[in-house]
């Protein structure tokens, strides 16, 4: 009898000794450990554009500083195709665990959802992380075009309706929509010539295949500075600091603005703690003085704004561009 009591008493004591640690197992479950140690492995940053372009420049410029702050590698995964839809779909389908960010821009977040009947993703599939930068695109002309200013270009277009041509990176691109907005607001008739990418669109204006182009600054700045192309205006609301002598279209066409922008998002449902760490890392990369100077030299203005501001921009831009797309009756498919 005494032995049985002793055994029961020993079991109770052992149970009491173990009890305080019962919750530790729950706290250190694989999911809890992964969240607590985030990031425990490299983070993938999907870029739905080809390597070497403006999107790639922006992401790779901030990469080193962001990795330093995050304490893990950031792997840039270029997945171009279908006007950015292919890479954006991959980002939307990624696990919401903090280990995948997706680079997004005006096209993928505010144009494609209205131009494509089935882009394969929705803006609602993502949570905005950081508004990284705003970009002033540039209206340039071949030197055989007699117009030296935007006013002269508009006057020339009005004197020759349907004769002047302009190139862009493709149908439905941000610069295509910017060109159509210019046509509507300035009441001119230009012929859009789409190319498969920004590089061939610039080659076309250099070679005189088209009269003008609205292009990403990275593609045309070297040709402007070498004198091969003439810059007439930038598409942003104000002049760009790196091109102070080039006016904004808005100085001539009141109310015009077709600023491009870019940022990072994560899949909806990503843990807030992971999102916060990713955001802090990207913001540090954007605010680094050397990085900011490099981006500004290419007309990329580092906005470095957190998720809520980026979400507000995306909503505003969707309202603006969806109206124009409906007005023009544009569809890609």
UniProtKB/TrEMBL annotation:
The keyword Transmembrane helix does not apply. Pfam families: TctC (PF03401). InterPro entries: BUG, Bug_dom1, TAT_signal. Residues 1-34 form the signal peptide. This is Tripartite tricarboxylate transporter substrate binding protein. Keywords: Signal. Belongs to the UPF0065 (bug) family. The lineage of its organism: Bacteria, Pseudomonadati, Pseudomonadota, Betaproteobacteria, Burkholderiales.
